[in-house]
Amino acid sequence: AARGLDVASYRERVRAMFYHAYEHYLESAFPYDELRPLTCDGQDTWGSFSLTLIDALDTLLILGNVSEFQRVVNVLQEGVDFDIDVNASVFETNIRVVGGLLSAHLLSRKAGLEVEAGWPCSGPLLRMAEEAARKLLPAFQTPTGMPYGTVNLLHGVNPGETPVTCTAGIGTFIVEFATLSHLTGDPVFEDVARKALKALWKNRSDIGLVGNHIDVITAKWVAQDAGIGAGVDSYFEYLVKGAILLQDKELMSMFLEYNKAIKNYTKFDDWYLWVQMYKGTVSMPVFQSLEAYWPGLQSLIGDVDNAMRTFLNYYTVWKQFGGLPEFYNIPQGYTVDKREGYPLRPELMESAMYLYRATRDPTLLELGRDAVESIEKISKVDCGFATIKDLRDHRLDNRMESFFLAETIKYLYLLFDPDNFIHNDGSAFEVVQTPFGECVLGAGGYIFNTEAHPIDPAALHCCRRHKEEQWEVQDLMREFYSPKKTKKFTLTRAPDRGEGENGKEPEDASSEKAGGKRNSKRSSHSLLSCPSQSFNSKLAVLGQVFLDNT
């Protein structure tokens, strides 16, 4: 079958798909969050911040379009305001808005924008990302440190807000929040993200599993299904990516413990099922399309053989339907009632991209080909690409999620573009002068957040605001011994990484107390203790089904 697929022509088709969707969004939907492709108009979905534009921004640069990237950055600076009376998902706002802005901020020099003298430690997009993230902080003011799922961007947490949040909605902050803390010098973001991760870890079951939804006030599990899919997925992803980004052994060892329990209790014949978190008994023998990120994650920890076997299982489902149904009953080999749709999700293409980097197996390019053909054939309409409501009869839904441009197109393009700057292996880089010394950037090793926004891990070492005593002593010694006043202490900052890692752990235990104190000082931001959107509608939005059997 591997007749040497024409990679360049598929790359160009993916580019054309991007512009077909993007131009119609600008024409028919902007400044609303999302395009409605069947009626050629727009709607606000996750807030009211031109979400598709923020989400698609770094994709423009990956496709090489610097002029439009620059134009959009100016549009966003003028037009986006987070001081609005809107109930927003804490999780979605973080991964799409904060993540998208951080990634665009770190790529803005590459895109030829004039950057501020203090960049990457300052800049308009970084200030926007910080402002959006500050709006989310009140959600973390809970007895457990686990955040509410919804926050009002103006008033903080609504009185009467449900305290039940899904696991992913608690454990998917460390990538964005640690990046913010490292760039701005304000530790509060990383502190709350770590505290939430630790609270989930502390509340795992005796057999080492976490459930699907938990009460953030009482730490009682409300939905006790354990698996790797919807409601849990990106918690595991962020333990691995956070560990890599921050070179943090503790996060990685948490993941490896979970990984053992997941293999022991949920894995059957290279499929993963849902089990009861305390007993380990199977509760639902279904594969969910969201789980298709797992092979990509396994490849990140070097478990390529297992990743490939699971990927091939998922690929057979794709071939059966021309898409991945939201739920697939593994024993019956068919869709699950009311879950037959495919909203053009990226997860299978994401895994294909990672595995192709690891193996160069041409089967992975074939999945990319199938995805392009299938999405074009089934979901392309005059005004963009529409969610597939039912893979059995190809009915469409009037929605184009922002992740189609942020993730699906990006991962497909990167699968077909082996020479993209994102795949840089460290052979090229730039040296940037910052107020804190010299800084190496753009050397590759990008960490994608769960909305496919790439973060340059080297940037986290550019902005040591609060120099630790160690540096101050070193600098004093250097001034004392150096005959001339040459400020040449730039490259001694290299041990940063290791020192950050060891310096983290002792401070960690106390950060629970310190975090509380620090937050209470920060009372310029509303710290309403209780938080909006009803539980059921939120579950419906996140595509959950864990209500019936709890």
Automatic annotation (TrEMBL):
E.C. no: 3.2.1.-
Main location: endoplasmic reticulum
The protein's enzyme class: hydrolase
Location of the active site: E92, D233, E326, E347
Binding site for Ca(2+): T450
Listed GO CC annotations: endoplasmic reticulum quality control compartment; membrane
Region (Disordered): 491-531
One Gene Ontology molecular-function label: calcium ion binding
Cofactor(s) named in the record: Ca(2+)
Protein keywords: Calcium, Endoplasmic reticulum, Glycoprotein, Glycosidase, Hydrolase, Metal-binding, Unfolded protein response
Record field: transmembrane: none
GO annotation (BP), single: endoplasmic reticulum mannose trimming
Keyword Kinase: no
Compartments, as annotated in UniProt: Endoplasmic reticulum
InterPro entries reported for this sequence: 6hp_glycosidase-like_sf, EDEM1/2/3, Glyco_hydro_47, Seven-hairpin_glycosidases
Family: Belongs to the glycosyl hydrolase 47 family.
Listed PANTHER family: ER DEGRADATION-ENHANCING ALPHA-MANNOSIDASE-LIKE PROTEIN 2
Its biological purpose: Involved in the endoplasmic reticulum-associated degradation (ERAD) pathway that targets misfolded glycoproteins for degradation in an N-glycan-dependent manner. May initiate ERAD by promoting the first mannose trimming step of ERAD substrates, from Man9GlcNAc2 to Man8GlcNAc2. Seems to recognize and bind to exposed hydrophobic regions in target proteins.
Protein name in the entry: alpha-1,2-Mannosidase
Lineage: Eukaryota, Metazoa, Chordata, Craniata, Vertebrata
Gene that produces this protein: Edem2
